[in-house]
Amino acid sequence: TSKIEKPKIERKRHIAKTITWRIVGTADTWLISYILVYYFGDTPGKATEAASYIAGLELITKTILYYFHERIWYRLSFGFTPKVRHIIKTISWRLVGAVDTILLVFVVYFFLFGETEGAAEIAVSIFSIEIITKMLFYYIHERVWYTSNWGVIKSEN
Fold first, then answer.
1. Which terminus has fewer CB within 10 Å in the chain: N or C?
2. What 8-state DSSP symbol labels residue 31?
3. Which residues contact 43 (CB under 8 A, 6 or more apart)?
4. Cα separation of 130 and 98, whole Å?
C-alpha cells in the first residue's frame, strides 16, 4: 500500500487562518459579552467597555494560542478522514478557547469593576453560548479553508 503524503503547508497559511478566525471569533465574543453584561450584569452602562476589553484581550491571547494550535495540529498525524479530524480539532480548540475566555472575564471584571463578583456567572454564560456558536463557526471556518489551496505546497509526485 502506498502512503498518502500530507501536503506541505506554508506558515503564511497558518497566519492567514489565524487572522480570519480571530475576526470571526472576536466578533462573536464581543456580541455575546455585550448582551450578557448589558442584560444580566450588575452594571449595564459598562457593557460596551467590558465587552470591548474582553474581546480586545482575546484578540491578543487567542491569536497567539490559535497560531500554536494550528502548528501543533499540522504536526499531528491521525488516520481520520478530514471531516473527523476537523471535528476533533474543533473540540480541542474550543477547550483552549473556553479556558482563555473564562480567565479573561475574571481579569476584566477585576480591573474594570475592582472585584470579581458576577464574573463567574458571566464567564459560564459566555462559555455556554460559545460552546455552540464558536464550534459551529470554527467547523465552518475549517471546512472553508480545507477547500482552499492557498499556502499549500503540493508534492510533485
1. N
2. H
3. 37, 50, 113
4. 8
Nearest residue to 132 via CA among 27, 26, 28, 22: 28
Mean pLDDT by 10 residues, the chain (157 residues): 70 91 94 95 91 95 90 85 89 93 95 92 94 92 93 77
| Total-model pTM | 0.81
Cell of 75: 504536526
Residues in Cβ contact with 16 at an 8 Å cutoff, skipping those fewer than 6 apart:
150, 151
Q: Where are the alpha helices (DSSP H) in 7-118?
A: 11-40, 47-75, 82-113
As given in the structure block, the three cell numbers for residue 135 are 464550534
CA distance 141 to 143: 5
Task: Give the closest residue to 105 by CA, choosing from 55, 59, 63.
Answer: 55
CA dihedral 108, 113, 115, 121 (to 10 degrees): -60
Task: Write the single-letter amino acid at 77.
Answer: S
Q: How far apart are CA 130 and CA 81, in angstroms?
A: 26
